[in-house]
Structures
1.
Amino acid sequence: MSLESFQLNGRNALVTGSHRGLGAAIAITLGEAGANVGCHGRDPEPGHVCDELRALGKKTFYFAGDVADPKVCSGLIEKTVAEFGSIDILVNNAGMIRRAPAAEHSIEYWNEVIAVDLTAVFRLSQLAGQHMIRRAQGGKILNIASVLSFQGGVNVPGYAAAKGGIAQLTKALSNEWAAKKINVNAIAPGYMATDNTEALRNDAARSRQILERIPAGRWGEPKDLAGAAVFLCSSASDYVHGHILVVDGGWLAR
């Protein structure tokens, strides 16, 4: 296997939730590897990611909207195909978290998290998969799971349920689409320094407890997902199906 198998030249990608954080790092890294990358976020302004992709000489666009809305999901896939001619790579990164003890966790919190973190991932994957099947040229779907795909967490029942569902959805789709040369895999980040973990990082006691368990001794950074994302979106991973690749600084091994 040559290093060329990790290149994404000529591939067309969509990364949801790429306005900042993990999604932004993944989008820029895919562009550095050669892909054209469509970006998405809830913020009406595109931010810096599209500018960085254009500086790399890549085609890009920004689509604003809440993926809890089915029309936004269909619009994202349609926009990608219209702008680039195809969608070869889908990265389902958009997500949210609501923290409250289970006894007080409102049904509104539950519904909101499940809609964004699980239902939208299925709908986007389904739409992208339909396009890939019609083209009969394969494709890559990469879901962003979590270490809570394996653990229950505390005060985040909706998030834990959704991320557990992402792991199973990844396997279910790979079972159906692997023979069609569509790879469906996931990355399960550990405790990363993003907006979703700001409350934990600002809690001195909880942050210390988390750091004491991470063998690497630090919070993860968005760039720590870069290599895993390129691998799972490139031809280097053509025989990898239904896998959840943990990037957690050793958290689960502790």
Note: Residues 221 and 244 are 19 Å apart (CA to CA).
2.
Amino acid sequence: MRFDKREEENDEEFCKLLASLADIYVLDAFGTAHRKHASTYGIAKKLPSSIGFLVEKEVGIIGDVIQNPTRPFVAILGGAKIDDKIGVVKNLIDKVDTLLIGGGMCFTFLKAIKGKVGKSIVDDEKLAFCYDIIKTAINKKVKIILPVDFVCSKNIDDDADADIFKLGKIPDDYMGLDIGPKTVKLFKKYIRRAKTIIWNGPMGVYERQIFENGTKSVAELIARNKKCVSVAGGGDVVSAIEKFELSDKFSHISTGGGAFLTLMEGKELPALSVISQK
């Protein structure tokens, strides 16, 4: 559909053309339900519409986990950019008991509290946000758990220089590319006690074997917790879970990236809301 520019523009005439092809529209593309495109949002306005089994399952499971979790409720966030997770953090801070933060986004949090992060990825424009979130968590008695050690290198392609450094000890010319073994042990304490877990974003550059242990260990720890409801979503996390052959050990693995994040933010999916409002 996206080979036609009118799709992403939600072009009115294109919506009419698509609607002319059918009598009933069923939305079962969860992965695109967060977009106001012609084939998801626009066509639903033109025809009698419903959702399919996949969308029903995704929205039901993710919504129930966030709104009605069995506690302790642990959220695990990673990935490179804090900017992608601002809405998620804001929403989850009111929902979870513990928030475990790894990946590149942890360094903005660490720098916000005066941590030494070397040349690790940092979003300086979000330092104030991270500091405020930490204060909010303290006031709400929510635990934010940040890494205490890291697998670092001078650059992402240099295996030879890879080494483990404790928090505050990362040299100026090194960058953190995975959480370290002490952090895995720290995270284990919360993951093994959790009754509900939601996970988005890897703990490091899991595509490289030398930097995969953090993500792999978190996936294995969740898989070993047989008493919890475990939900994971987002392209990188799903790819990592598949890489480590643990897909069948999770309660639910979401088929959506952006749609999954939208629900984690506590927002409605536009393509779904237009159907529910009919």
Note: Residues 77 and 200 are 5 Å apart (CA to CA).
